[in-house]
Amino acid sequence: MAIDTAQQVMQLGDYAKRLSAARDRSYALAREVERSRGVLDFMAHDPASDPALCEYATKALELLCENLVRLCALTDEASANAEALASLPLKYFSNETGTAGELDAAVASLVEATTTAETELVELAQVVAEACEAVDEMRRPEQIG
């Protein structure tokens, strides 16, 4: 059982790192969205731009950014929890204290959280790329003219 417990505690550290990476990636994506929102804000003041389109695009980017920030917060919290559990001594997870089952549950929960976060990030990264590209395309005619 000690080997299994040790492996599970090591897994906690691995999941903490993966969740930290997901947090950092979601933060970076949110920054990309914010840059595009800045471009839209600038474009909205241009009389040649379509104000309704700019407002619609800005609201869509705001929602996207909110989702990214929420994911950032959730992955940060999950990573911190995993790091805290991984820092506990192995003897803490002995069967005598009843925490071995809690360790199993924590690892299972982190597997699900990590997989979900990584899957969501792949999808959100695609949405961010498309949204930022659309904003860039909206801006191009302004630069050409």
What does this structure look like?
- This protein has 145 residues and is mainly alpha-helical.
- The chain has a single domain (2-144), classed as Four Helix Bundle (Hemerythrin (Met), subunit A) (Up-down Bundle), CATH 1.20.120.
- 86% of the residues lie in helices and 0% in strands.
- It contains 3 helices and no strands.
- The chain has helices at residues 2-44, 51-86, 100-144.
- Helix 1 (2-44) packs antiparallel against helix 2 (51-86) and helix 1 packs parallel to helix 3.
- The model has no long low-confidence stretch (mean pLDDT 89).
CATH topology: the name is: Four Helix Bundle (Hemerythrin (Met), subunit A)
Measured distance between first and last alpha carbons:
71 Å
Biggest beta sheet summary: none
CATH architecture: Up-down Bundle
SS elements, strand count: 0
